[in-house]
Amino acid sequence: MEQTFMKEKKILPLLLSMALPSMISMLVGALYNIVDGLFVARISEEAMTALSLVFPMQNISLAISVGFGIGVGALISVSMGMQQQKRADRAASSALGLCALHGLLVTIFGIAATPYFLRMFTDNAEVIRMGQQYANVVFLFCIPQHLSIGVEKIFQSVGRMKSSMAGMLTGSITNLILDPILIFGLGPIPALGIHGAALATGLGQVASLAMYGIQNRLNPIPVHFSGKSCRPEKNMLARMYSVGIPASLNIALPSLLISALNSILAAYSQIYIVVLGVYYKLQTFVYMPANGLVQGMRPILGYNYGAGESERVKKIFRAALSVSALIMLSGTAVCMLFPSALIGLFSENPDTIREGVIALGTISIGFAASSVSITCCGALEGLGMGMQSLMTSLMRFVVVIIPLAFVLSRTFGPHGVWHAFWLTECISAVISFVLYRTALAKKLRQISNENI
User: Fold this and answer.
1) What is the pTM of this model?
2) How much is the pLDDT for 332?
């Protein structure tokens, strides 16, 4: 079959060939994320605060779509490795209808819940008004968002990483072009302000979905979409969601973390909420390439696991961990060398810049350690061990950091929150690696008898 290269090609070249398209597209996505913040920051600091407060809810929508896509992709990769074509086709076809359903539910919930969510963190009427305006438009595009990401993960699961890159780049570039036009106006197009930022995001998702459709029409992927295969079996649904739900929670956990940290920081000043929002814009430039690497790793691991190549699975993990650590160390160096310039992109307030420099320099200490947790999570998801992956993320985003941030803030003020980040990454790296090694050893012992 077409995917046999996944168990025949040399590991590092294979990993890089699979990962580089995702890394490039995610870098462009990170650039969009930062440019989007830059444009919104030019509207007002209230607009930037509104964007920061809405971000956790956006991330929940993203988490549901990406998490489910990871579950579908893992099932397809393993099925293809075991030469089970019909099962892979059924998984892909069923996923499209489920993605649309998820998007519809998130649209309804997101629009209804936004005003209550915003009032949990601020009583500033202008921030609440702008946050509602942004969220109402963004959530209207949840169905194309969920479909686009679902198809993206299907493309990745069969090794079509360049096609996945084309779809992701189409969405990001569309956003980049439309952002200034719709926010500030151009010719006959009126200035829509924060409405425009949300509309640009939604139209980018539509463009991405259209690109996937065009590519599959011109060069069909090895799994087939059909109405006859769209009814999943109960066992198949269990497999999708057993990985998809933990993967969704993995991605949603940062939203819980941001909300918890916003509550702690709000007791000191709105400046710290802005700084946290800016940090999460900037850190995408480091974590997105690392996540792109993990996206390239998942289908290779899944395929080789399904093909019974246990030693190759271990070597792929080691190669991915090494490259991920190099990416994160580079991110630390940039944050240490140019903190003022980075924070200054989003604010001209000298107090915000001063506090942002402290935050960025402190948090970035833990970037290298986080490469261990990121790689372990991705490997576990690729092997279909969703619950173990969730446990590693719980360490990073809930169990360790939130109590630690609360305690340290009582001793060191808001700066204690920044120290909680790097301390948590170091603790989580040790726990996640031990968990991965234990879970992998157990899984590989069962591989010869497992009937997936």
Assistant:
1) 0.70
2) 95
Classify burial at 86, counting beta carbons within 10 Å of its beta carbon; exposed 0-12, middle 13-18, buried 19 or more.
exposed
CA-CA distance, 201 to 173, in Å (whole number)?
10
Task: Confirm if 31 and 196 have CB atoms less than 8 A apart.
Answer: no
Residue 452: per-residue pLDDT: 46
Buried b / exposed e along 105-137 (16+ C-beta atoms within 10 A)? ebbeebbeebeebbeebbebeebbebbbbbbeb
Rg, Å, the chain Cα set? 21
Cβ–Cβ under 8 Å, residues 331 and 286? yes
C-beta separation of 243 from 384 below 8 A: yes
Predicted confidence at residue 137, as pLDDT, reads 92
Which amino acid, one-letter code, is at 106? V
What's the pLDDT score for residue 211?
95
Residue identified by tokens 């200035």 is: 191
- Cα dihedral 173, 175, 177, 183, rounded to 10, equals -170
Low-confidence ranges of the chain (pLDDT < 70): 1-6, 29-34, 227-232, 443-452
Q: What are phi and psi of 130, to 5 degrees?
A: -70, -35
Q: Which two tokens stand for residue 128?
A: 């609440």
Q: At what angle do helices 234-266 and 85-119 cross, to 10 degrees?
A: 30
Query: Residue 186 in 3-state DSSP?
Result: strand
Q: How many CB atoms lie within 10 A of CB 333?
A: 12
Q: Phi and psi of 413, rounded to 5°? A: 75, -160
CB 278 within 8 Å of CB 347: yes
- Interior CA angle at 287 toward 151 and 11, to 5°? 70
